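F.,

This is the one I mentioned.
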């Protein structure tokens, strides 16, 4: 007996088998975003990881480790990459710096989440932390809290 009539009798559809439900992907689902606090990173900057630093590098290093993206950098262990970015940025801002150095700095900014488009690509979102809402179980306590 030929194979085609058997398949038609069973009612199987031609083509690949359907994916397991655990492997399906919703195209309209919201992406998994890493939420970064708008207040930034609160702890002190890590130690400078590469050779000696200049005052300009130390100043920029301290500023960068206070921004929201620094929370992700710390989690990912990007300390040396940030140090290289700082060093190249300081060098690129000198009077006779080569244009190619500025191009490299721009590309690093893009990879480190320092531009709006790179935040989207990295799936990072800067969010305000909403104050915690206390639940009230006692009506008298609620009234006294309102004044």
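My design for it:
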């Amino acid at each position: 007996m030929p194979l085609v009539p058997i398949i038609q009798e069973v009612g199987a559809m031609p083509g690949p088998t359907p994916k397991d439900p655990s492997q399906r992907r919703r195209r309209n689902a919201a992406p998994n975003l890493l939420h970064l606090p708008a207040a930034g990173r609160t702890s002190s900057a890590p130690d400078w990881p590469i050779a000696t630093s200049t005052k300009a590098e130390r100043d920029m290093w301290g500023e960068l480790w206070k921004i929201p993206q620094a929370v992700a950098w710390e989690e990912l262990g990007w300390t040396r990459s940030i140090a290289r970015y700082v060093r190249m940025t300081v060098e690129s801002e000198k009077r006779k710096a080569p244009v190619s150095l500025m191009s490299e700095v721009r590309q690093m900014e893009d990879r480190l989440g320092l531009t709006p488009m790179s935040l989207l690509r990295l799936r990072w979102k800067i969010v305000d932390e909403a104050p915690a809402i206390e639940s009230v179980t006692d009506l008298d306590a609620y009234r006294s809290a309102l004044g």
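Helices lie at 3-10, 55-64, 69-76, 79-92, 99-111, 116-122, 139-146.

Talk soon.
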